[in-house]
Amino acid sequence: MTDSKYFTTTKKGEIFELKAELNSDKKEKKKEAVKKVIASMTVGKDVSALFPDVVNCMQTDNLELKKLVYLYLMNYAKSQPDMAIMAVNTFVKDCEDPNPLIRALAVRTMGCIRVDKITEYLCEPLRKCLKDEDPYVRKTAAVCVAKLHDINAQLVEDQGFLDTLKDLISDSNPMVVANAVAALSEIAESHPNSNLLDLNPQTINKLLTALNECTEWGQIFILDCLANYTPRDDRESQSICERVTPRLSHANSAVVLSAVKVLMKFMEMLPKDLDYYGTLLKKLAPPLVTLLSAEPELQYVALRNINLIVQRRPEILKHEMKVFFVKYNDPIYVKLEKLDIMIRLASQANIAQVLAELKEYATEVDVDFVRKAVRAIGRCAIKVEQSAERCVSTLLDLIQTKVNYVVQEAIVVIKDIFRKYPNKYESVIATLCENLDSLDEPEARAAMIWIVGEYAERIDNADELLESFLEGFHDESTQVQLQLLTAIVKLFLKKPTETQELVQQVLSLATQDSDNPDLRDRGYIYWRLLSTDPVAAKEVVLAEKPLISEETDLIEPTLLEELICHIGTLASVYHKPPSAFVEGSRGVQHKRLPGSAGSGESVESPDPGAAATETPPAVIPSQGDLLGDLLNLDLTPTTTTGPPPPTTSGMQMGAMDLLSGGLDSLLGGDIGGNPAMGAAFGAAPATMPASFNAPGSGGLDDLFDLGGGVGMPMGALNPPKAVWLPAMKAKGLEISGVFVRRAGVIQMEMTLTNKAMSVMTDFAIQFNRNSFGLAPAGPLQILTPLSPNQSIEPLNNLQVAVKNNIDVFYFSCQYPISMLFVEDGKMERQVFLATWKDIPNDNESQFQIKDCHLNSDAASNKLQSSNIFTIAKRTVEGQDMLYQSMKLTNGIWVLAELRVQAGNPNYTVSSVALAIGPIINQNGFENGFTNQAL
Amino acid sequence: MIHSLFLINHSGDIFLEKHWKSVISRSVCDYFFEAKEKAAEPENVAPVLQTPHHYLITIYRGKLFFLSVVQTEAPPLFVIEFLHRVADIFQDYFGECSESVIKDNVVTVYELLEEMLDNGFPLATESNVLKEMIRPPTILRSVVNTLTGTWSNVGDTLPTGQLSNIPWRRAGVKYTNNEAYFDVIEEIDAIVDKSGTTVCAEIQGVIEACVRLTGMPDLTLSFMNPRLLDDVSFHPCVRFKRWESERALSFIPPDGNFTLMNYHVSSQNLVALPVYVKQSISFFDSGPCGRLDITVGPKQTMGKTVEALMVTIHMPKAVLSANLTATQGSYTYDLATKVLVWDIGKLNPQKLPNLKGSLSLQAGAPKPEDNPSLNIDLKIQQMAISGLKVSRLEMFGEKYKPFKGVKYLTKAGKFQVRT
Prior knowledge:
The complex is a heterodimer of chains A (934) and B (419).
Chain A: H1 14-22, H2 27-42, H3 51-56, H4 63-76, H5 81-94, H6 100-112, H7 116-130, H8 135-151, H9 153-158, H10 161-168, H11 174-190, H12 201-213, H13 216-226, H14 234-244, H15 253-267, H16 275-291, H17 296-312, H18 332-345, H19 351-361, H20 367-383, H21 388-400, H22 404-420, H23 429-434, H24 442-454, H25 462-470, H26 478-494, H27 500-512, H28 517-532, H29 534-541, H30 557-564, H31 570-574, H32 608-612, H33 623-635, H34 651-679, H35 714-717, E1 722-725, E2 733-742, E3 745-754, E4 764-767, E5 797-803, E6 808-814, H36 829-838, E7 844-849, H37 856-865, E8 869-876, E9 879-887, E10 893-901, E11 907-913, H38 922-933
Antiparallel strand pairs in A: 1-2, 2-3, 4-5, 5-6, 7-11, 8-9, 9-10, 10-11
Helix pairs in contact in A: 1-2, 2-4, 4-6, 5-6, 5-7, 6-7, 6-8, 7-8, 8-11, 10-11, 11-12, 11-13, 12-13, 13-15, 14-15, 15-16, 17-18, 17-30, 18-20, 19-20, 20-21, 20-22, 21-22, 22-24, 24-26, 25-26, 26-27, 26-28, 26-29, 27-28, 28-29, 28-34, 33-34, 37-38
Chain B: E1 2-8, E2 14-19, H1 29-38, E3 48-50, E4 55-61, E5 64-70, H2 76-94, H3 99-104, H4 106-116, E6 117-118, E7 121-122, H5 127-133, H6 139-148, E8 179-192, E9 198-212, E10 218-223, E11 232-234, H7 240-246, E12 248-251, E13 256-265, E14 275-283, E15 289-298, E16 306-314, E17 319-326, E18 330-334, E19 339-345, E20 354-361, E21 373-381, E22 390-396, E23 403-418
Parallel strand pairs in B: 8-23
Antiparallel strand pairs in B: 1-2, 1-5, 3-4, 4-5, 6-7, 8-9, 9-13, 10-12, 10-22, 11-13, 14-15, 15-20, 16-19, 16-21, 17-20, 18-19, 21-23
Main location (chain B): Golgi
Pfam families (chain B): Adap_comp_sub, Clat_adaptor_s
Family (chain B): Belongs to the adaptor complexes medium subunit family.
């Protein structure tokens, strides 16, 4: 007969039936009923309604029934706290039962009832049990303190249970000691500074004695606790090690690993010339190897820890390479970890074997594993110099397989090999170049580009190769773009004559057509560098690179030390300090390895303060200069659009010509800068208002007058001007302005104020290229078209340059998008319908307009005055749906659906655009409204 | 420590949950399901997962996931060991560890879990102790229960063993036939490369004991050649000091079946492989086919017969079918899993078994890149390949004369041949 029968009764009256059975007079029937209740509870059914009936069965001599009722109580007490109090009496009674096992059972169950109300009733029985004559009761009570602490920490402290618990560490029974340590450790985790586990040589001695006699789990608790102790000297350290080593032969791998932790930590204190030190090292290897024959999950944790141990003390496992060889049926997570350790252990002695293995792995099926194996070959080459040649030839063999991901990985690692051994293996470049077309991963492409740039002088068609990458420049990832920029600059410095066009092309791509600030900055730096001093550029760009270190992936030493102290814990699996991930780690203390005595070798990390003082002084140019520079750069390309002058003196001339235009204006800007700045605060500024309207602003019909609803004096309708360029930043010139749309013309109204001492003349204005193609309709002064720079979010951002006799000033301002809606934005009904359907959903965006107290007709009128036209209106369930269209100056149509619900001041707008959906954002609509409200 | 346990079946249903502290919502398992989704094979799910508030530590046993939720910085090995112990106990109690069996015995399972852990701390994990408190289901008892209607699996005796300082042995053991049997079982893990050279080979040994002795016997097991054993791990009952000084195992045994010790032999000269394999698997560039030729022969068998010999090959995906002839045994090729199994049986040294023939590939498929590996299974009775031998077993503390016996068995563990 099986328990499944308890699951078959899912009829409606089930609870009712059970209730009747629970109240039956027959003991057997009662028991049977409790069982059914428990079974239902186990599978997640709610049987809490039976609480009083089940608790009634608690007063029984039948141990089984008692246990079952306890099980039930633990589960449901939380949801029925008032009822749970009914059970308290029984617990108190059971805690005084002559049978120690019943006492223990009662105290154990009590702690599991997580109800605040009854905790205070439990203190007295718990106190008694902590001092019980029977060790079994004491050990159970020790755990109960931890449980109670979890529910009500304050209560536990007030009642002095923590001190009682500390006393239990000196208990005569090893099990009690182990449980007391476990409970204290758990409590200490929430009070990192409470010094609960105050370890001294006497307690350590007690713990070591208990260690030999308690259960395997108790041993883990004790060992973990021991690991927190810092011995006074190397002799104490040695004696602890001696008493811990037998644990290395335990069948439970957690015991073994905890013992390894204690030994790894205390070994630090032993002098290295001591015989015992050598013996200990030898003893550590076999248990670690044994861990690898266990279940894969255990292997995984063991391998993560071995990874740390090998970094700290490579000598322990240096002869055990073979146990880390991968079997094809290992789970992938074990394979990857083994591979990591193989590389760490690779040395001249075993490299042949390792390489043979790695080559074998590179032909396996699992892609991740194969990739890592290929990468490992490269790492071996870097680590063991003697093997580099063999590694390279292995990698070449693998490239011949033409398996796409193998080739890509191989190229990435070959790049590193080149960096480690420059001028040694360049003969393979030809082979690499053959595979150029098959590279589709950014990392591999970037690596290949790096190689081409670095060895440009040896690759005849380097320019062609790089040019081919340049075609799809904007589709590449940042990594590749950056690498391509650098590589072409390198190429230019090496072969200036043929590659001028190429370098110009890449510089303008990087600086003008890219959204990426890193790329842009790097572009500008190269550009400046090439224009000011090509010799210096050569020195900088083609500088000798530092060789890459043997192992780039080693864990940083102080972190490694901390992790060694956490062997066997989650921190050791993640390779992160506990403070980095433990939930609510209230200031978890950082553990340190003890300094070694005798050998005089300090493992303490240097004072952190020392490192901080060495920060190099940062040179930050003043913002004004920077802006000036950038602006100059923007202007220059237009001056060099003609054929480059014949380069007679090689690259130096070429570079100078290329950028010479920028230098003059740069000088001008710098000179003019400072005095004007000082003058900005002059006491009597000569104000020279220079208000002007952009040409073509003949009509003054205000757009808002058409709205009709609100009659307001015309002047008041003008939105106030905002300060766009403060005088502080522009050497005394202050610009404020506003955008308006008048009679189908977008107008930018600006007020220029001279707040400087001197007279300003020669004004000119220029807009940067922008999303809607805004440009001054008529010149303010003689202007050359400003070269395009870059587009910046938000789209309606306009960058403006204003020039006078002092300098060029540069600022940006946002214009309301509603300004861009043109008058002929009314779409035909039929066209509207068809277009709405055609536009993909991705282009749609939705938002709400809050607090707009207008009915749909008024709204539609107002919007029309801002050139948002209502095409159709539909009323559905009290909601008015307005279908509207608008057209932007650049010809993009935007269609919108406005939902207006009577009485609800919030409108919902869904808008779709033919090309660019999300751009028509809330602003456009709100502007339409707020302009009205003014 | 351990906060909650979820049992999850192959298809991802949570069919049992147990919380030792506050209740944690099932939704925490979603992170695990996500990881399971990503890993193609269930055995490839990483055993330690991090979620925003919890850590999930999982083992995969018998097509079930045992997923435990941990909230503090607990040692993962501790949790994994414990989970395996839970699975072992289920196995021990119900004969197998499967979803249906667990569902059939859900009350027992729940009681067991309650006894095994208290507030996340392991309480009683020894099957000896547990069986005193919670009786395993037996056919006889279930028949009796059905007839009488009295149904109980909770023992009315109390776990007295928990009070003593030898918690692994229950008190008051009585047998009419007193017997102690030991099985020395060795598994060979080896990798052999294309040319037949051993890349690495090691032996995982275990001594399984079945001891049914009355009272409190104190046993001493000694070996002819204990020097072989330099990497050992013992059941807690073994006195480590005696091992250090005398190289003999001295212990008071648990009652019933238990693992006395594990050992590991890895030094190359001691590990001799019992068979050799001559193989060639090749695919032609010209057409969609390939050839296969495998011969197995005896190497180091010390005159014993190699039995239950079996060769398993995971073929590349492109292999459609195999047309082979075996001189001995039979072969099957599973189209779905691409696994070729050649079941040979006993190895006859006079007439070496051979499997030969052609493989056909999917038309148009490129020549497979990966080389299939051969997995070898075998058994040799009455021999421990490391040469380990028990010299004698002595018993102290009791007067009677027990039956004693030692058996040896060598098996292939992860024994693979690369091509």
